[in-house]
Amino acid sequence: MTTALEHVDVLIVGAGISGIGAGRYLRTEHPSKSVVILEARAASGGTWDLFRYPGIRSDSDLHTFGYEFKPWRDKESIASADRILAYLRETATENDLDGRIRYHHKVLAAAWSTEDARWLVDVERTDTGERLRLSAGWIFSAGGYYNYDEGFTPHFDGRDRFAGRIVHPQHWPEDLDYTGKRVVVIGSGATAVTLVPAMADTAGHVTMLQRTPSYIVPVPKEDKVASLLTRVFGAERGYALTRRKNIAQSRAIWRFCQRFPGVARKAIRYLNVKLLPEGFPVDEHFNPPYDPWDQRLCAVPNGDLFRAIRTGAASVVTGRIETFTETGIRLESGQEVEADIIVTATGLNVQLFGGIDLTVDGRPVSYPDTVVYRGMMLSGVPNFAIAIGYTNSSWTLKIGLLCEYFCRLLRHLDDNGHDAVWAIADPDLPTRPLLDFGAGYVQRALAGLPKQGPAAPWLMAMDYHEDRKQVRHGAVADEHLHFSSATVRAPVSAVG
Questions:
Q1: Does 457 sit behind a cis peptide bond, omega within 30 degrees of 0 on the bond before it?
Q2: Of 353, 360, 346, 370, which Cα lies nearest the Cα of 439?
Q3: Rounded Cα–Cα distance for residues 414 and 362 (Å)
Q4: How far from the centroid of its chain's Cα atoms is residue 386's Cα?
Q5: Which domains does the chain have, with CATH numbers?
């Protein structure tokens, strides 16, 4: 007897902050639809369960990084991973999602059939190696933007000669004892500036070795205004007001940096000088060659990195690596940096959509040949939603808006008797890279990513207020969307 293929209305790929959020919106707005969340790993939480390195925390405030529908009640606005993880898992439980998450389920490929208006999804059980197949009306890709299996480490000459231990933050060993050891952290991004002060109290000394400086800005770990608003207006109203305040504040800072980069650079330098030891070579170690917000600003709660430098527990070295040696690292300048442990906080490997191979009516989907519609769909690919958050603000702000639009679009299909929708881009539409962002991990991946257009709805907007107009309050359908139903089938073009 043939076993019937299991079918779900919406298949969510990934049980991290985006996938749990999408599940909650669907359960609230479309309770009659069947929803399943596939998670390749053994636990939910995505980034916040994967990374285990010392001090891991958010680099955005939790009043905007948290969900709009669930107040962040912790007193710390810049929060540690364990608190964020507890918040996410509580959200899943409150919204009846625990039983809908299937762990050890990795999506390998998905094939769209226009005739059947469904995806056939190939899945691998990562714990047993078993292969299985599901049928889905929609796929919501919520797997984040980087490869969970492997972080990025550039080639370092002499690596095999180093007598100590080399670790990458994405695969932090549980048995790593750095007590009293000399630690070198290679990097200057969010991970590095988190690791250095977190390890400094225990290690013998921690050196942040950077090729290029980053903009590093102190932020309060606790939001005093948020606490006041919560006391006065209660948890929910206080959270909403704090969220609105922080959105306006981050938007104002970003716009100021874009409009007055020279003044912004001087302001950040002033804060650095104020918190660093007298006579510290600020322009050597904290003066990036690019303008503020060409790359993301690194936030350090209560200036902990600067405090570690002031006490002598940590130091900064700027230069290019020539080679690893038996006892550490030699720079092109000839300077030797001794180490017992080297941490390569050198970034991520970007991987959108979890590396899923997509086909539409037998034709492989080439991601670089697609254009993103409203930041949520790929041109020419039916019933496939994506979740990519902001690079210049809290990731979740964008995800919430996309989930709202997704639910509105599903209702539009139901109300009009449609079962499929896809976006079509004009072949002559001018395009540019998906993300206007200078970070190395983004630049390395741009050639393999979808494109964006010059204006809405093809623009990958990075402005929450503009997105609210277009995504939350704009019309659900426009001339770029094409619909299909069981009674009238129209072929999907290879590339919209």
A1: yes
A2: 346
A3: 27
A4: 12
A5: 7-149+349-484 (3.50.50.60), 159-344 (3.50.50.60)
Q: What SS3 class is residue 318? A: strand
Beta-carbon contacts of residue 107 (< 8 Å; ≥ 6 apart):
13, 38, 40, 121, 122, 123, 354, 356
Task: Decide if 183 contacts 192 (C-beta within 8 A).
Answer: no
Average pLDDT of span 166-191: 96
Sign of CA dihedral 459, 462, 468, 469: negative
Note the pLDDT tens digit of each residue in 322-335. 999 999 999 999 99
Q: What is the pLDDT of residue 495?
A: 39
CA distance 41 to 350: 18
For the chain, give the longest Cα–Cα distance. 80
- Side-chain-facing half-sphere of 440: CA atoms under 13 Å: 17
- pLDDT of 375 reads 93
- Beta-bridge partners for 216: 298
Q: Are 101 and 39 in contact (CB under 8 A)?
A: yes
The band of 288, judged by pLDDT with boundaries at 50, 70 and 90, is very high
CB-CB contact of 451 with 432 (8 Å): yes
Tokens describing residue 46: 């995505």
pLDDT band at 354 (very low <50, low <70, confident <90, very high): confident
State residue 469's pLDDT score: 86
Strand partners, 80: 57
pLDDT at 492 over 70: no
CA–CA separation, 166 and 342 (whole Å): 5
Specify the pLDDT at position 339.
98
How far apart, in whole angstroms, are the C-alpha atoms of residue 33 and residue 249? 38
210 Cβ partners below 8 Å, 6+ apart? Answer: 186, 187, 188, 192, 285, 316, 317, 318
Tokens of 357: 């191979």
The CA–CA distances, whole Å, from 123 to 106, 131, 145, 484 equal 5, 6, 20, 27
Contacts of 125 (CB under 8 A, 6+ apart): 104, 105, 106, 131, 132
CB burial of 340-355 (b: ≥16 within 10 Å; e: otherwise) equals bbbbbbbbbbbbbbbe
Label residue 422 exposed, middle or buried (CB < 10 Å: 0-12, 13-18, 19+).
Answer: buried
Judge contact between 187 and 346, C-beta under 8 A: yes
